[in-house]
Write a structure and sequence with these properties.
Length: 87
């Protein structure tokens, strides 16, 4: 599994983010605490992820998949010092 911490700041960005995740050839989830949603679902991302930090979990261990995902979410990545805000 590949994991990043992301923050999707607005509803408009949630749409862009979800469209990027739909292009991934593997499952991608957003997780915060016990709540998990499909990152490819625009409604799920809007409901769950706007304005808060969350773990982005990709169900793949391939290096090329990780690189592709990291490129797609580069604008949403959270710095390590902000990691404490994720539940």
């Amino acid at each position: 599994m590949t994991r990043f911490i992301v923050n999707i700041p607005t509803v408009e960005e949630a749409s862009v983010f979800s469209n990027k995740m739909q292009r991934m050839p593997f499952d991608v989830d957003l997780r915060n605490g016990r709540t998990v949603i499909d990152a490819k679902s625009i409604l799920g991302v809007i409901y769950f992820g706007v304005g808060r930090n969350a773990f982005l979990e990709a169900h793949t261990d391939r290096k090329t998949d990780r690189e592709m995902l990291e490129e797609a979410v580069r604008d949403y990545l959270v710095e390590d010092d902000q990691m404490a805000r994720v539940m």
